[in-house]
Fold this protein.
Amino acid sequence: MPRMRMNQAISAAIADEMRSDPDVIVLGEDVAVAEGPFKTSEGLLEEFGPLRVRDTPISEMGFLGAAVGAAATGLRPVVEIMFVEFLGVALDQLSTEGAKFHYLSGGLVKVPLTVRASVGAGLGFGTQHSQTLESWVVGTPGLKLAVASGPANAYGLMRAAIRDENPVVVLEPRRLYARREEVTVGEEGIIALGRARPVVAGDDATVVALGSTVGAATEAATAASWSADVIDLQSLQPWDREMVYESVARTGRLVTVEENPLSGGWGADIVAAVAADLFGELKAPPLRITSPDVPVPFGKELEERYMPSSAYVGEQVTELLDTGRVPPPWWQREEITT
Amino acid sequence: MSTPLERRLALQQDRRVRYERMVEIRTLENKVQDLFDEGLVHGTTHLCLGQEAVAVGVAAAARTTDQVTCTYRGHGVALALGLTPVQLLGEILGREAGSIGGIGGSMHLCDPEIGLMPTFAIVGAGIPVAAGAALTAQVRGTDDAAIAVFGDGSTNIGAFHEALNLAAIWKLPVVFVCENNQYGEYSRIDLTTPVDDIACRAESYDIPSAIVDGQDPDAVAEAVSGALDQARGGAGPTLLELKTYRYAGHSRADTAPYRPEGEFERWYEKDPIVNFGRRLVDEGVLGDNGVEEVEAAVDARIDAAVELVLASAPAPVAAMFANVLAP
Ligand SMILES: Cc1ncc(C[n+]2csc(CCOP(=O)(O)OP(=O)(O)O)c2C)c(N)n1
Ligand SMILES: [Mg+2]
């Protein structure tokens, strides 16, 4: 098993799909000659040439729309949106066009498109380049959504996304690009969309994390006096109800760990489903550990507080277990806001 | 220490101050690079080294009641409009002394008093917003105007085209200032854009345009002034293409390996600071030692600003909760 950085794993996944399928093409800003601003298309231009690996102008609506058109007519484009915020200027093509083609063609047209975007805080890119924005994607039927939490699942999810017959968005927490781990490559490394990954096993709670928060949740659970199942959700649309339900039915407690504002965060869907379907099995109210309802700030300490840390996850879960109640978030505890 | 407004008025009245401001921009950008290299700054930054004349020319032409939108490569425009080195460095370093208290960072500056609207980190986003500021002037019947400053690469995004069209049909008092620094990120302009001159894009919107030497602050000021006069007079928008050059890489991490050999050197012959300094000495506006005097004064000012900023407290955690919604 090769050890790779997450950006290398992404390049490798795309390269493997390009080798096996000549319809796979890559589009994005500075993805070809420069091999991607985050080096997520290393070696692709060299191996596959300029017909299939293309630098685009700064025209997200144009090239994402072109990718929708190419996907609908036989290609399998992989589009890079450098920072997920840039999807904002192209969202129509993805959400209102591409996501609806299959439906609006009576099932005759397929859009096997992969849209990759870097997400998240932690690197000091400031308010307009640090959000996670799953919420822009998750409420749109017709789209699938996966979120990588490290090199291995970045590889596996990417390959599954490129093979999928639907438009799939793959979000990549930017601060993990340099993270290294062993990656299972080849067919065995492919991870089915919609399947979560058990990371840590335990009995007191089910901690569901996604992308950048998997690390904090895992660290917290490993260091704590309590024991918990830590589940890396990996896919949000669809999400793995089976694994989450099986775990919560056993532990009786659900915790989500989210790097996004409290309002409208992905955890709300998980909590709502579990509360409705497993009401009788719960020993405590579900706890959502999130960022506050503010734009992502710049200053280093502020940005670090914005993202749920392992220490914070540890404290919140401990208090939930001790009191049987949902503890207030840090910004209420410290009386900064109500 | 002068206020932002005083700094702006001085620049408008005095070409010596324009020279000094260009030196200030360059010195400060170099200082920012040093601070990054020393690991004192979080995040990224986009320097405008080489593009000082654009910033100063625009600020010399615009009134303080005109609104300016600019990009993440905005340190120069902000300083030229009047933002103080302390406000700028404070923001870049995440300190309370920053123009928005340190929660924005390098890409997010603002000072309404001098017409600096919140700067934009999304390519093209400031162009329609400038048209909107011009709409305010038109609806309210003031004779203010707006200026959008944006890069060459931004003219490939829809916002640019939509804003020009809108401004043209409504005859909005806005000047579109494209700083063509030859690159968008790591790609040379001709690899992403089929036309040699951005200015020609105005034609399809029936907007007048001009190509201007962006390395000459006098030429920039004159062109922007002329376009602003037209705009205030009800003639509508103008597109100005300012030919300039980005001396540094796109951002902190970029060493610009894609740049052809000799290109930087060719552009450096047109260096805005060297040439304008020479011109002012020839004209007698600067004395024989004027260049050295300005450099020494600016160095001292920037060193003092760095000291002040390093003594300023980092933005407190509570600051992230302020100003999310207006009361
Ligand atoms: C919508 C959008 N797409 C991509 C980016 C990433 N990006 C930031 S700056 C830049 C290059 C812009 O080039 P140009 O407009 O020429 O301005 P310059 O940086 O040269 O000043 C790109 C692609 C962005 N910020 N926003
Ligand atoms: Mg440019």
